Amino acid sequence: MKLVYLTLFIAFSLLATGQNKVSGTISDKDNKALPNVIISLPELHKETLADAEGKYALTNLPNGTFTVLFSAMGYATKSIPTTLSEKEIILNVTLEENIIHMDEVIVSTAFNKLQSQNVMKVEHESLKSLQQKGAATLIEGLATIPGVAQVSTGTSIGKPVIRGLSGNRVLVYSQGVRLENQQFGEEHGLGLNDAGVESVEVIKGPASLLYGSDALGGVLYFNPEKFANANEFKADFSQRLFSNTLGSNTSLGLKTSTDNWKFLARGSYNTHADYQIPNGDRVTNTRYNESDLKTGIGYSNSSFSSVLRYNFNKLDLGIPENGIAKQSTSHETEFPRQAVNNHILSLHNNFYFKNSKLDADLGYIFNDRSEFEDSNVASLHMKLRTLNYDLKYYFPKLGKVETIIGVQGMHQTNTNSGEELLIPDAVTNDFGVFGTANYEFGKNVLQAGLRFDNRKVSTEEHGTANTEGYFKAIDKSFDSFNASLGYKTHLADDFTLRLNVASGFRAPNLAELTSNGVHEGSNRYEIGNADLKNEQNLQTDLNLEYKSSHFEIFANGFYNHINHYIFISPNGTIIDGNNVYDYVQANAKLYGGEAGIHFHPHPLDWLHFTSSFETVIGKKDNGDNLPLIPANKWNNTFRGEFELKNWWKEGFATLNIESTLAQNNHSEFETKTNGYTLVNLGLGGKIILNKTIFNLNLNANNLLDKTYVSHLSRLKSDGIPNVGRSIVLGINFAI
Question: Which domains does the chain have, with CATH numbers?
């Protein structure tokens, strides 16, 4: 922490101030003014809208070189690098029509480029687009992105899977800080509410260079909602209703800003009964209730900006253990159940010098998790406290070379107060240092980086030796060097190639190192291994994409080899009637990819057709299949866009056909899963009735009420199907 404070002190003492302004007019190719264009400087968290005459102005800007973005629906995003030096810059811009896609700034990668400029292929999805698909939860929406799936326990608990890797192999970022919520547990979900989330970015591959341990398989980076533009006040109310679970999701938000200060607050409440399967039965105790509060305050001037955000999430989750038993539409959870209180506090600071920048971010996460078996006395009570820091210095640009060095660290404590212990009391400390550079030459971009990490894990002894629940004290240290190299080029106009090679690592988690007891819900006695080594991988990614005004096609391929892959294996003995499993290691490989098209035929400007196929194969080097590998999936969507006079704007109607193939490549602990096809419908848009304006979404998911079981459902072993037909109605009002 002394390093953090010293760096901040030096930064304040070196600040270079400036009073700069960027202004101009935006028009189309016919020189017609374009209103409502979004003009932003992502690095400065500054944004405004062009007025009815296409005019705009951004003021109170620091000295330095920044990228000014101009974006509007139906037009290609334009980015203009601009050097500010205590004077007004006039930028008059012409935007070109582009119906298919809108370029987005990628925050999760090092240099915050537009996706079209980025060396690494990153999937970006707005929360609005996920909600238009009728997703009941955030993780359910993520599973519609090619290459992403979920391990689910009913409708309430979902764990993300990226190209066959899940749990501690996928790192989640919220509010710019890594989310720590005991990810090792099979029944420990994401623990994030979609209210107050602007968008999500998915890195499908090792991102240990930027994020350290646990980013071996990829990263989910959730961008929080933006503040209001300067001198604006906004308030909104949204309500979603779910027929299958008799559920309701209510959210109320407000935000306001001056030239320097910004504030927002959002509260939401989510409640659901047991989900219903196609034969009409409900799956007992899959109900849940969730309360969520998000708030933020920010300050910026011509020298620096600072944003403080806080998120409190309270979950009351039923744990389904009895399958289809007592039928009820109650929303009150039964035993066994979980109670999870999660606090996320983040502070993001940006210090602007003459030609460089320092980012200094701090985060604190407190995950308070209790499990109640048959009474209101918690049998399991775990408290996980995590403090992390992230410092990145952006050097002055040398020609066409951009360079970043960074220091990251984490201090984490786990304590237990219940009778049952899954993992012992422990302290974990991470430290990492990295450097990365981006070089542009002609139509080519080259990016490379190197990183060193150290993780120290110390646990306390607990229990009586040679008995169940005994944890031997350990003191372990894990080191890893990792590197990445990426290349992007234009093979022809609108035809892009990206090639990335990166290594990643994951230190063993506490459960893998220390387990000694029966794992509830799986009927197996698990024994940890204090001698486990780092998982270390090397992945090669190839991305090809062609984009024009009316046609888009992409193909992503990957090969991922993991040394010392950690898994459980039976040792042939039995304790108290339970088979005993050891945590062991072996080399493994995963390979596959995603491919798809987006067709927007001319002159049928109202019609869009998208189709994607995804596949992943995971095997140990001895040929055995890895567990929790999602089945191949083929997804097709027809989308029509329309307007009805002056009362239905931005209208859309969708038909989605999602075909999941049979999964016959299952591990020794799994069984094969039959294929199935789901049909989903969607309808929505902006409704204008006199002076009342609201956004409407209406979805019918699993329209044909198909009985199916997902390969990654934890209820599959009990023969319990996934959710049946669900009608989802969503309304959002600007107050």
Answer: 1-98 (2.60.40.1120), 218-734 (2.40.170.20)
